[in-house]
Amino acid sequence: MSEQELQRLLDALPPLLAAAGVIMLFAAALLRHRRLARARRAGKPDADRLAHDAAALAEQLDKFANQVEARVDDRLERLQRLLDEADARIAELRRLTGSSPAPRAAEKPGAAPAGSMSLSPVEQVLNLHDQGLARLDIARRLGMEIAQVDLTLNLYRAAASRR
């Protein structure tokens, strides 16, 4: 799977989850409406029925949230495995071609701030992004591919939105 396909997968995930949530809420509201209509015909008190429906809806939403969370976790794990495979393939290609990796930030004159070498690449990307640097500038400064910067930022956003 190429990085573009991975990016499209990550980009499509939030709208799909939102659409699924809207559909679930619409279905729950429709069921609630039907139950209330049946309860009125059966002569049951509306307050008791509403409380029951609210509890059932909360339970359904909780189950749905757990399912969505599990699917997102599975996809993130799959994405990490694909990234690891891609890194291994890149390393193998470099070994076979005899080329060396792109120079890191520490090797570029004036690239990274003095204290940043103790930071992980992810932390460096996030720090530079927080400072307002564009993705291309971050990639150049850290000696990374822009796709790596994009993926790091997208994964961080996805993880932050799950909290």
Provide a brief overview of the structure.
The protein has 163 residues and is an all-alpha fold. The chain has five helices and no strands. Helix content is 78%, strand content 0%.
User: What's the N-to-C terminus distance?
Assistant: 28 Å
List segments where confidence is low: pLDDT < 50 over at least 5 consecutive residues: 104-110
The secondary-structure element order is HHHHH
Residue share in helix: over 70%
The computed structural class is mainly alpha
Radius of gyration: 24 Å
Tell me the number of strands.
Answer: 0
Principal-axes geometry comes out as elongated
Q: Provide the residue-averaged pLDDT.
A: 81
Q: Main sheet?
A: none
Proportion of beta-strand residues: under 5%
How many helical elements? Answer: 5
Would you kindly provide a written description of the structure presented here, covering whatever features stand out?
With 163 residues, the chain is mainly α. α1 runs parallel beside α5 (146-162). The chain is built from 5 helices and no strands. The chain has helices at residues 3-42, 46-97, 121-130, 135-142, 146-162.
Write out key terms for the chains shown.
mainly alpha; 5 helices; elongated
Helices and strands, with pairings:
Blueprint: H1 3-42, H2 46-97, H3 121-130, H4 135-142, H5 146-162
Helix pairs in contact: 1-2, 1-5, 3-4, 3-5, 4-5
